């Protein structure tokens, strides 16, 4: 238990260290006006489109004129296109020059996102407002919020898994597990209330000192994440009676079916409070994703919480634990692992979107770490399963039937081999060396069972320790931008940096020459993606998604509105990618990028892609 406490401390430190980077889950897909656009007349509104539904704050938009004065706007609202848009309107016409828009929203899976963009009316001005969007979250608030989420996950696993262990595995002394259930219940309640109080400063990016503002608490109670937390509190109130009901089983070997059904329904409802406010609630296939998320969380709770209950039972049991208890839990653990693998594969595919994202995104790299930890967990589980098999009772061997003597048989007829003679006691009464107790006074079978149980206890302890680590990695993973959203934003050329204006422009240009295996994509990166000199890198991906080599790649840029171009970018093969150290794009606006890809001596194709160049 001291080792588990140390591991929990290290994971808390990891959560504190990981709270500073942005936890954006919604990525900016497009904006109107586009970032860096030069307009002939003042726009009536600014509309942002994201990769998923977003929630709006009181101060979601701040617009500044070229002299750094704030511009009057309407309240933020969703646009006509739906909840994945955010929009403000201007009550009067803007002047000329460059305007800066700083924005901040909350993604559908509860994480805040911020950024900034510029547009010009008439022509770009000599001066522009210098606006910092600030960090997505206050470091202290973000750290405390992540720790609260981790404690909530642990408490949910311990409470649900321990109750299920009592109900299904039926340990001989369930009273020993009442304390862990009560501790987990209070921990989950405290963590949920803690998260609710911190919800407003977490969304606003302010310090924890603002948490107890009554208006902030009222606003938290109206948003989907806040409502999910309040629903969790209400469900915990209903679960408070379960330990008492489990203790009063009134001469039953197992809880009644209505009680089991009630407990299962409450567990599913609790799991839904997580699914409704995190990754599963946004993106593609939401109903299936939420179902998978609930099953994933419950199977994790049954396995990890049940392991902890088994460890406590093994530790506190004065006599060897009945093998039937361990065997029942082994079946539950096997089913839980099966569900975890199936739902985990689906959720990984949904979050990644492509094999390339596995190594090219933070989400993918963190997922690889989790997979390595899960592999260790499965290895520990396999070892525990072996010790469980050794504790299982051997099949009973029936004694051979005695051979009866026929009626009237001669007196000297030999007796049956198993029949005792008149002067010899029955064989079952004769002591054998194997039946004699050892010098310690403990029967050999009991000594063997004790050794196996001690080995099982060590194996389960290792399994719990690795499971706690996996849970910590999962908590961090749920606060990371999914690879699918990052790729979608990059493909649209508007990948948003959570801390401000993007530092580079990335575009994916599909091509197809019309021959077998003659299709793929070109990923083109312009750095910094703004007016002036830009470096260019181009990577060609084949039909299988892997990097492909082509004999020739040509690239040029045209700004039709100003009759500029085509401006060639003299990219050269750098061994695996094509690059040019500098291409000068003199004016902001919507440029047309022309890409020519030659895949053989005879086959080539030319494709175009619109690209926004900021001022």
Quick summary:
With 615 residues, the protein is an alpha+beta fold. The chain has 13 helices and 16 strands. Helices cover 42% and strands 20% of the residues.
Description of the molecule:
With 615 residues, this protein is α+β, with helices and mostly antiparallel strands. It is 42% helix and 20% strand. The strands form four sheets. The protein has a five-stranded antiparallel sheet, with no helix packed on it. Strands 2-7-6-4 form a four-stranded mixed sheet. It is built from 13 helices and 16 strands. A hairpin with a 4-residue loop joins strand 13 (572-573) and strand 14 (578-585). Helix 3 runs antiparallel to helix 5, helix 5 packs antiparallel against helix 7 (257-275) and helix 11 runs antiparallel to helix 12 (444-477).
Strand line-up in the sheet with most strands: 8-9-10-14-13
Q: What's the rounded overall pLDDT mean?
A: 75
Sheet of most strands: 5 strands, antiparallel
Radius of gyration: 33 Å
Helix percent reads: 40-55%
How many strands in all? 16
Shape: flat
Estimate what percentage of residues fall within beta strands: 15-25%
Give the SSE order as H and E letters: HEEEEEEEHHHHHHHHHHHHEEEEEEEEE
| Structural category | alpha+beta
- Tell me the distance between the termini: 58 Å
Number of helices: 13
State the low-pLDDT regions, or none. 3-24, 394-401, 405-441, 493-503
